[in-house]
Design the sequence.
């Protein structure tokens, strides 16, 4: 931990966020138990989160991140002349902006001069949360007025300013606790030091998982009747045949009551579907207006797919997109698994779709990358997860000087795998075909660190729980030779992991 003398020296240099850090051994803990001890303490852990990763569906990523309850959040709703971004601190709106929300977020980040600690992972404080799919309407103005009806009512962007964070090193078993102090506040150093001591003491407490018990299971309700979905796929195929599109992602939303603990849903999902991006966000009350309590709002996800990553390297800011398309179930034996892999990568339809997505990724990165730096560093690899395997490729580039995370997001958002090609035109048709606003689905979940690094996953295999209703969405990529019935089945299959996780909780999986 830095001394008070060092703290004051950094303050004189103009730093307005200075982290104090404590270390502890946590090799007998899990990220979930640490979340319960550190974050899920007061008000049920509102405005906190847990981020985990399982690499290739088979081994835990090196770091897990716990965002302790945030005092400040940024939220955006509305489009065009009605757009509004609010900065909320301790439940009070302290600032309002009507400029482009992504520009406001970029400007907001620049307010903080942070004394970064060497040796920390890419995220050790900053903004964490989501950008809903409909945030594309802040990028492509022609989509501003075509949004379908909103039946969920959640902010289009919601980010927590994380200034108390726990970083778990799953390799060494060490835990790093960071508290950011604002030297302009009285007794900032001593208060941060005292807070770290409190957090260390919490490590010695005993916790229990949220209580669950067997409860009534609920049948899901679909917003897209099957006949209407099949008709939408046929319409998409007609327009592809006419030469307007190469692919269109057509999705459906499913909802059902869910009265159990959202954290229990996360526990079930991470067991059923371990993924590179696993996240649990408690946004309870984050949408509250003055004098109101706000909604119970949670985001639970296990996404296999990166949207975009920006990270500092010796050669500059590296931008990465990793297109994922082409799916098969795992084989029952190693021999069947290998045979399935060979069939998948040889399938002409899967290869054609994947080539299109590689081209989309190259085009997106090319908009903000240095000339000649964009390259496909891996093509048609197969990644295996617990139940399925996917074709994946890796596209990288070096960011142009003077560009930041919001420029990268504007260039790459939303993912081509969730929209279609050509991208903007496909989104215009999606607005016509799908009966309700997508909301979070197809957007992005992740973080933008104080260091400027960004890592966001595509919000798929992701559930939203609002006021005890679970919303799940899934889409299928329609191409010229698509069979409508098969595309419907694909959406049902993709939604199944979350729905099964909900059933598992209701069956009392702990009992």
Sequence:
């Amino acid at each position: 931990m830095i001394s008070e003398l060092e703290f004051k020296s950094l303050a004189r240099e103009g730093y307005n966020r200075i982290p104090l850090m404590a270390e502890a051994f946590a090799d007998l803990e899990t990220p979930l138990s640490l979340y319960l001890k550190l974050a899920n303490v007061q008000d049920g852990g509102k405005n906190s989160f847990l981020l985990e990763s399982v690499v290739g569906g088979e081994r835990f990523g090196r770091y897990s991140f716990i965002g302790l309850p945030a005092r400040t959040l940024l939220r955006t709703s509305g489009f065009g002349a009605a757009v509004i971004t609010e900065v909320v601190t301790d439940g009070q709106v302290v600032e309002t902006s009507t400029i482009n929300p992504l520009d406001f977020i970029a400007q907001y980040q620049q307010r903080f001069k942070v004394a970064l600690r060497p040796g920390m992972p890419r995220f050790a404080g900053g903004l964490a949360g989501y950008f809903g799919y409909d945030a594309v309407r802040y990028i492509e103005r022609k989509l501003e007025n075509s949004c379908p009806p909103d039946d969920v009512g959640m902010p289009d962007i919601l980010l927590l300013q994380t200034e108390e964070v726990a970083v778990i090193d799953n390799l060494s078993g060490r835990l790093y606790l960071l508290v950011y102090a604002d030297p302009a506040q009285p007794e900032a150093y001593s208060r941060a030091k005292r807070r770290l001591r409190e957090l260390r003491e919490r490590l010695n407490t005993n916790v229990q998982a949220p209580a669950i018990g067997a409860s009534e299971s609920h049948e899901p309700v679909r917003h897209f009747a099957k006949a209407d979905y099949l008709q939408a796929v046929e319409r998409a195929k007609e327009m592809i045949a006419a030469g307007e599109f190469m692919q269109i992602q057509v999705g459906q939303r499913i909802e059902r009551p869910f009265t159990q603990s959202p954290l229990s849903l996360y526990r079930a999902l991470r067991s059923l579907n371990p993924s590179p991006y696993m996240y649990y966000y408690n946004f309870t009350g984050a949408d509250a207006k003055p004098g109101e309590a706000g909604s119970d709002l949670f985001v639970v996800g296990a996404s296999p797919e990166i949207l975009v990553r920006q990270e500092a390297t010796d050669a500059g800011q590296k931008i990465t997109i990793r297109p994922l398309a082409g799916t098969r179930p795992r084989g029952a034996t190693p021999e069947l698994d290998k045979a399935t892999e060979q069939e998948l990568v040889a399938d002409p339809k899967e290869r054609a779709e994947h080539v299109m997505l590689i081209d989309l990724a190259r085009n997106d990165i090319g908009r903000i990358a240095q000339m000649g730096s964009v390259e496909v560093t891996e093509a048609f690899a197969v990644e295996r997860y617990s139940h399925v395997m996917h074709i994946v490729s890796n596209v990288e580039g070096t960011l142009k000087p003077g560009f930041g995370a919001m420029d990268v997001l504007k260039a790459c958002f939303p993912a081509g795998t969730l929209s279609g090609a050509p991208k903007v035109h496909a989104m215009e048709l999606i607005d016509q075909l799908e009966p309700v606003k997508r909301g979070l689905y197809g957007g992005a979940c992740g973080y933008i660190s104080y260091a400027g690094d960004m890592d966001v996953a595509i919000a798929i295999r992701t559930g939203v729980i609002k006021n005890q209703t679970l919303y799940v969405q899934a889409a299928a990529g329609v191409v010229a030779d698509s069979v409508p019935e098969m595309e419907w089945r694909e959406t049902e299959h993709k939604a199944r992991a979350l729905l099964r996780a909900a059933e598992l909780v209701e069956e009392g999986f702990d009992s």
